[in-house]
């Protein structure tokens, strides 16, 4: 017995048959319990897998999924959001260049578009849009920023889709929209003839584990700020979220690589189809020319130029064409050719050089060439391709000060200045800046200068307006003299005593007041009123006797103005033959030419 106890404490004694049966039963029960729990979990998950209740919090979840609520609502932004249209067709897409970052670059990678229709840089953030120079063209070793590249490519329209690389929490929605606006203004400055469409920042899927810092909530905030920017600045907004976002508020998982934020080919196809059925229609093609557009050259993912064989020299020659935009605002000069609106040079090669000057007409100024060159005189040489550019002019902005260009004032004066601007679209209340001797004073249409001291040299006052980085000014020179010495007071004169005599009189009448005018020898006059006299009525006299059932009439006359006043005499009773004694004494209705006294 002692040996048996020690064995049970220190080792594993064999199970009896009954113990084995009990263990099997327990195992079966545990397995049934596990299966039951799994089944119930699946049923509960399916029951709760639909759209979240309206009263749910910002993230409502089952055990494995999250739902984004309060997402981007494009309906708040009116006509800025492109609505549904008839299918604009393949031509609409063919005339469009897609601009953006790595998601846009995939249009080319997936073979959906040629490289000449895609201007995109992988990893590009909106803050670097205007400075990154990763776009290259064949036979050109220079790298170009996206705005400058678009000026060379002369697109009919562009669709810009940026923002994914900024949705990692490092940039606020307001800063994102501000940077985006700067990018679009750079495009308009580089090539003002293209229609600009702003695409919504594409969503990300719920599973974006490879990019854990990305946030769908941030993207929704970006799109709200972006759509409002379009409303404020006249751009059109393409809400691609209509086709990319699922019921849970995230991007549809079938459109994204697993755990990734990059779009698959089906998603990009869906965006193009959506763009065709939500087209920007009704605009005219404003491009002055569409010739000699250079071909794009592919770059590597880091922005380095993919090597291409250097073309061997041959006898090929090129042409250079220079134009004036719509023949308005100026002319071209080259050598002995002056005052023309078009210049053409042929048979140019790598040793050729051409200089052309854009000369603005009166009231105009040179802005730039259509390829972004801002020098009025340009020299093109070492020709490796054709050149076709247009000189762009604009009406010269004239600022003037309405008070002239110079004047004088005394110490103590408050001098008002006001500005006028030749371009009526300029808001003078917010764009005119006043300076005094180079020091900024105020912004607004007018300014008051309170003169406090005199000096030998004049004050220099300027009114300035800055447009597209260029400042236009008008100058006024104000000479200030010392205030005159205060004269000593003169002795007070002896007070004058008026003595009036009658100068004229207007007599009063029955109804009109009269007046007497008196005059003093000093010329001072005064007037005295005479009250109206009132009527002087005579006795009543009978004009028509009253009879039984018939009224009579009596009258009286003013002895001064001869105005007559009449009064009805009451009719006599039908049964009576004698009129009442008082019938001509009582005044009932008076109908004279004026009222009683």
Task: From the structure above, extract its key features.
disordered C terminus, 5 domains, 597 residues, Rossmann fold, single chain, alpha+beta, extended, Immunoglobulin-like, 32 strands, 5-stranded parallel sheet
Write the layout of secondary structure elements.
Blueprint: H1 2-10, H2 17-47, E1 59-61, E2 66-68, H3 89-94, E3 96-100, H4 102-109, E4 118-120, E5 135-137, E6 140-144, H5 146-153, E7 157-161, H6 173-190, E8 195-199, H7 216-233, E9 236-238, H8 241-244, H9 265-277, E10 296-297, E11 318-324, E12 330-334, E13 337-340, E14 342-348, E15 353-360, E16 364-369, E17 377-381, E18 387-395, E19 399-401, E20 406-410, E21 414-421, H10 428-431, E22 433-436, E23 439-443, E24 446-450, E25 459-467, E26 470-481, E27 500-506, E28 514-520, E29 525-530, E30 541-544, E31 552-557, E32 564-569
Parallel strand pairs: 3-4, 3-7, 7-8, 8-9, 11-18, 20-26
Antiparallel strand pairs: 1-2, 5-6, 5-10, 11-14, 12-13, 12-15, 15-17, 16-18, 19-21, 21-24, 22-23, 22-25, 25-26, 27-28, 28-29, 30-31, 31-32
Task: Walk me through this protein's architecture.
There is one protein chain. The chain is an alpha+beta fold and 597 residues long. It folds into five domains: 69-297, 3-Layer(aba) Sandwich (Rossmann fold), CATH 3.40.50; 318-395, no CATH class; 399-481, Immunoglobulins (Immunoglobulin-like, Sandwich), CATH 2.60.40; 500-530, no CATH class; 537-574 and 582-597, no CATH class. The protein is 20% helix and 29% strand. It has ten helices and 32 strands. A five-stranded parallel beta sheet has the order 4-3-7-8-9, sandwiched between helices. A hairpin with a 7-residue loop joins strand 27 (500-506) and strand 28 (514-520). The protein starts with a helix and ends in a 28-residue tail after the last strand.
């Amino acid at each position: 017995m002692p040996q048996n106890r020690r064995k049970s404490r220190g080792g594993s004694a064999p199970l009896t048959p009954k113990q084995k049966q009990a263990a099997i039963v327990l195992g079966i029960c545990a397995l049934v319990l596990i299966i039951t729990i799994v089944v119930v979990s699946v049923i509960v998950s399916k029951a709760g897998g639909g759209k979240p209740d309206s009263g749910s919090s910002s993230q409502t979840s089952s055990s494995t999924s999250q739902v984004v609520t309060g997402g981007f609502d494009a309906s708040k932004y009116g006509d800025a959001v492109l609505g549904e249209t008839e299918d604009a067709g393949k031509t609409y897409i063919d005339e469009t260049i897609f601009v953006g970052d790595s998601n846009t670059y995939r249009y080319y990678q997936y073979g959906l578009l040629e490289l000449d229709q895609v201007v995109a840089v992988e990893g590009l953030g909106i803050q670097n849009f205007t400075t990154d120079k990763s776009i290259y063209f064949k036979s050109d070793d220079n790298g170009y920023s996206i705005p400058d590249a678009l000026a060379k490519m002369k697109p009919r329209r562009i669709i810009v889709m940026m923002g994914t690389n900024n949705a990692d929490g490092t940039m606020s929605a307001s800063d994102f929209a501000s940077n985006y606006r700067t990018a679009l203004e750079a495009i308009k400055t580089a090539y003002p003839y293209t229609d600009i469409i702003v695409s919504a920042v594409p969503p990300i899927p719920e599973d974006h584990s490879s990019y854990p810092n990305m946030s769908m909530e941030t993207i929704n905030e970006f799109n709200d700020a972006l759509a409002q920017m379009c409303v404020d600045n006249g751009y059109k907004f393409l809400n691609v979220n209509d086709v990319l976002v699922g019921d849970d508020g995230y991007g549809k998982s079938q459109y994204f690589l697993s755990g990734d934020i990059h779009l698959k080919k089906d998603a990009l196809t869906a965006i193009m189809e959506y763009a065709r059925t939500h087209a920007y229609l009704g605009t005219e093609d404003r491009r002055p020319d569409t010739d000699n557009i250079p071909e794009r050259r592919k770059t590597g993912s880091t922005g380095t130029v993919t090597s291409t064989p250097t073309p061997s020299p041959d006898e090929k020659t090129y042409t250079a064409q220079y134009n004036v935009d719509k023949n308005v605002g100026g002319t071209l000069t080259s050598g002995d050719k002056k005052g023309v609106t078009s210049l053409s040079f042929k048979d140019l090669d790598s040793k050729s050089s051409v200089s052309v000057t854009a000369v603005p007409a009166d009231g105009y100024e040179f802005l730039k060439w259509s390829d972004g060159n801002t020098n009025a005189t340009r020299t093109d040489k070492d020709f490796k391709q054709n050149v076709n550019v247009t000189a762009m002019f604009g009406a010269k902005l004239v600022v003037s000060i309405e008070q002239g260009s110079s004047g004088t004032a005394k110490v103590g004066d408050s001098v008002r200045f006001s500005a006028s601007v030749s371009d009526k679209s300029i808001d003078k209340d917010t764009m005119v800046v006043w300076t005094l001797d180079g020091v900024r004073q105020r912004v607004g249409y007018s300014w008051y200068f309170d003169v406090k001291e005199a000096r030998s040299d004049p004050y220099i006052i300027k009114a300035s307006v800055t447009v597209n980085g260029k400042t236009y000014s008008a100058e006024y020179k104000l000479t200030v003299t010392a205030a005159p010495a205060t004269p000593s007071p003169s002795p007070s004169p002896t007070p004058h005593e008026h003595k009036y005599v009658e100068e004229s009189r207007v007599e009063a009448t029955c109804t009109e007041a009269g007046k007497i005018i008196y005059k003093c020898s000093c010329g001072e006059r005064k007037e005295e009123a005479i009250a109206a006299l009132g009527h002087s009525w005579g006795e009543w006299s009978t004009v028509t006797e009253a009879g039984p059932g018939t009224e009579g009439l009596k009258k009286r006359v003013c002895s001064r103005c001869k105005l007559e006043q009449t009064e009805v005499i009451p009719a006599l009773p039908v049964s009576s033959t004698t009129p009442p004694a008082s019938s001509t004494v009582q005044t009932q209705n008076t109908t004279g030419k004026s009222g009683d006294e």
